[in-house]
Design a protein that fits this description.
Length: 365
């Protein structure tokens, strides 16, 4: 790489502590796919004898092997890699983990952009042995106080400046576990870490390393870290940690009281609900009775409507008969008027008069 490009893209050393797992090929493949153009790969043989040979190149990036004829512990292997690395920036990658293609590029860009900071970290997703992503993700923004209690940055989440090594930060070779946590604690005394959101690395969570069998906060490995650092943490940070604990205690007390109040409200609400349910049941019973009464009334109304219909038909028949009778009566009146006005009626008038006299005479007799 040209001198101009090496300034724009400072050399990054990727240190792989290898115990010759079959997954080393996955780790190297992820390095070969990095978009960042200036990388060297340092493979530390932590297995000892019989480690298989590796290529001199990882894609376009050179590989240098740090060999050993005996097994190396985690911290000792890490320090051996740091000692041989030439990069301005450095990062660890265990031989069973891997990067996304932009992992180094985005971390290096953050350090170049913020030269006052000596470390940058990003999100790491956890996977099982089958490389299936699990719900667990390490994506906690940097917090020096939180770092005093637990390690929330897997070792390949952090790209750091060579300056940390130059001022004496190394892996503690007396630690069997959490050497990376101890290293981050050392670095946190010198600089904050830049956090870049997003996941671009993967961490296999299984039992081969023994790390995940350590009991959190109270196990032997935690005790080693706490014992080493209890007299090294600045008093200001210890004070902040105590303050944080106190505020969390107050918040927890408030939450517990709110929980008690909520439970009381829930009990009252349940009582009101039970009362409302009783009223609803009573109302539903009344409604059922009303519906029965309504059904009966509808049946009675139907019967009445049928009776009314029959009565209307009978009335219609009577009206028709009355119309016929009135027509006949009108006809009779017309015929009678004709008779009264006839000549024969006029001529027979004396005879009808004489007949009336005879009827009256005999009626007196």
């Amino acid at each position: 790489m040209s001198e101009k490009n090496s300034i724009a893209f400072p050399l990054v050393s990727i240190i792989i502590r290898s115990i010759d797992r079959s997954t080393l090929a996955d780790a190297l493949e992820s390095v070969a796919l990095q978009t960042y153009p200036n990388i060297e790969v340092i493979i530390v043989n932590a297995k000892g004898a019989d480690h298989r040979e590796v290529s001199e190149w990882c894609g376009n990036f050179p590989i240098r092997m740090v060999d050993s004829d005996q097994p190396l512990g985690r911290s000792r292997a890490a320090n051996a890699g740091l000692d041989k690395a030439n990069g301005k920036y450095l990062i660890f990658l265990d031989d069973d983990d891997w990067f996304e293609a932009d992992h180094i590029a985005k971390l290096a860009d953050a350090l170049v952009t913020h030269p006052a900071c000596f470390a940058a970290h990003t999100g790491i997703a956890c996977v099982n042995e089958a490389k299936q992503i699990t719900p667990q993700i390490f994506a906690q923004p940097f917090d020096a106080i939180l770092l005093m209690t637990i390690n929330f940055m897997p070792i390949h989440a952090v790209l750091f400046s060579r300056h940390l090594i130059e001022v004496g930060c190394l892996m503690d070779e007396t630690l069997d576990y959490y050497e990376d946590w101890d290293f981050w604690l050392q670095a946190s005394l010198l600089s904050d870490f830049i956090f870049i959101p997003g996941v671009s690395g993967y961490y296999r969570m299984y039992n081969s390393s023994g790390v995940h069998q350590q009991k959190s906060f109270s196990g032997t490995a935690y005790a080693r870290i706490y014992d080493k650092w209890r007299n090294r943490w600045p008093v200001e940070r210890v004070g902040k940690l105590m303050g944080t604990f106190w505020h969390m205690h107050i918040a927890q007390t408030q939450m517990e009281q709110e929980l008690v109040d909520s439970r009381t409200q829930l009990t009252d609400t349940n009582k009101q609900l039970n009362h409302a349910q009783i009223q609803l049941t009573h109302t539903q019973t009344q409604l059922a009775d009303v519906q029965i009464q309504l059904s009966d009334a509808q049946m009675q109304l139907s019967d009445a409507q049928m009776q009314l219909s029959d009565a209307q038909m009978q009335l219609s028949n009577v009206q028709m008969q009355l119309t016929d009778t009135q027509a006949q009566l009108t006809g009779c009146h017309a015929e009678l008027n004709i008779i009264y006005r006839s000549r024969s009626w006029y001529i027979t008038a004396p005879l009808r008069q004489f007949n009336l006299i005879i009827k009256n005479f005999f009626s007196r007799s």
